[in-house]
Amino acid sequence: MYRIEELSTVRRVLRLAGEERSAAAIVIALSLTAAGFEGAGLSSLIPLVDLLTGEPLDYSIPVIGPLLERLGAYVSIDAIDVILLLIGALFLGVWIGYLNVIVSNKLAMRFAHRLRLQVFETALRRPLAAVESLPAGKLVNNLATETWRVCDALFVTLDVIVRIITCVVFVFFLLSLSPFYTAVLVGLTATMAVVVHLATRAVRGLGASAVVANETFMAYVWDALRGLRVIRGFGREAHERQRYAERSERVSRVFTRLGILSGVVGPITQTMTFAMVGAILGIAIVRGDQISTLVGFLAIAYRMQPRISGILGARTKLRSLDASIAEIEQALTGQPEARATRRAFSGLQRGVALQNASVRYPNAERPALHDVSCGFLYGQVTALAGVSGSGKSTLVALLLRFIEPERGRIVIDGTPLDEIDPEDWHRRIAFVEQDAFLFNASVRDNIGYGDLEADFPAIKEAARIAQATDFIERLPNGYDTLIGDYGVGLSQGQRQRIALARSLLRSPDVLILDEATNALDRPTERALRTAIEEAGRARAVIVIAHRRETIENADQVVVLDEGRVVQRGSPAELARADGVYGRLYLRDPAIPNQ
Hints:
Elements: H1 4-16, H2 21-43, H3 45-53, H4 64-72, H5 79-125, H6 128-132, H7 138-177, H8 179-199, H9 203-226, H10 228-233, H11 237-263, H12 265-287, H13 291-331, E1 351-359, E2 369-377, E3 381-385, H14 392-399, E4 407-412, E5 415-416, H15 422-427, E6 429-432, H16 443-448, H17 456-465, H18 469-474, H19 492-505, E7 510-514, H20 522-534, E8 540-544, H21 548-552, E9 556-561, E10 564-569, H22 571-576, H23 580-585
Parallel strand pairs: 3-8, 3-9, 6-7, 7-8
Antiparallel strand pairs: 1-2, 1-4, 4-5, 9-10
Helix pairs in contact: 1-13, 2-5, 2-7, 3-5, 3-13, 5-7, 7-8, 7-9, 7-13, 8-12, 8-13, 9-11, 9-13, 12-13, 17-19
């Protein structure tokens, strides 16, 4: 009935549900109990028919026969007694089955919750370059859709186990009643399974197509929502409406075909079940078998057929979910291996150094950084200079541990960075990017994200240092104003100042400004720089900037070109030397070079 592929799918689902196996054992125990009561209740039809037709009671019936024989030793058994016994057994079977449904649902929901947490946690801990290299929408689709589909797979798996156990119990009763008719029933059921398999062979391929269609659709939605300003600005609403409709229709078409193909199992099994009952009745008439035994046998067989239909339907469902299981298995791989020891890090004392560090992005032809060695001293401001694509942002990504060096290493006060506890390191570092990201929350929450335990006065002080107080207090609700997705209600300069306040609130040992003041006018930038220098204790400051004025205020400048350090020294030293720095920044001080 089930081939190697489906059994492999079941094993993979159960492996993902490792922490829920104890609850799964309870489900199995409850299903076995419910099936026993239902089988016993249906077997009671045989003595009931015997009593109604005047035949002697058959005590060879499993479970019910010995029970009636023992009862008969004390009281005279009549049809009412048997009816009460039948109703009691069926009642217990139904409500134990319902309890099983409750346990199964709680199990599946707990599994879905844990799976979503695991996928999200893996995304948080995987190297950032690996996450960012994923196709757009894949991670969102995994969290929003594929985890639920894997949860469905577990639910289907448990349902199959319950149905199989029920069928095994029923077959035990059927064999006790009539081995001959049981053999006939098994043969007809095998024929039904073959017919269902032939009718649903395309389900696995459609399941994979459904995952791809969902990912493509989610990627488009994600991209379109982020690009609404461009869509509006270029008047492409009609064009995007058409693109959205095409992708949405593709998803609908795949899932419609999948639903139609999966739904054919019900009509096939129901039709063949009627044919089975007719065949068994025809054989019974020809053989002249006892009517009471036939009634009990058909009652159990008829109750077993929906379970068999469910098992065949579940097989089809599991095949359609196989691609989703593979997707989540892949999403849960690639976590960085934990080092045996991690050193605690209490704060920067001397500085940060790169020693012959090289970085190559996935599928890149040449390294983004090649054999880079440079240092960033505590208490100094270092400017990173160079044309776009020279490796400045990659160097910063190394310091932030968004990526790991392919060769070489990063040393913090003499200790390799990969030996330092990552959380300790990130607590001592802060950064502001050129396109500052803000959460869809209040101004207070966005600044407070830098230090979740900071009080409101500390948040206001960070905003003051970042030259953000004036415009924040003019907002409709001041610090409690919701700024919308990506800070859409603010200008780029305002977003940068809030992001800078968020970083300053951490009071970091290392502050990285990745072109973080490019949206500010020069007077504001000068005031901001002065405020940062005057505020609090010393730190290592690393600035990526294109303005000559910003670079000239640094203690040292590291010039990158095509992923290599080509010059290093103070602004004055580099100004006197012939090289990339002079060509970029000394031709026309009024024009920033990019």
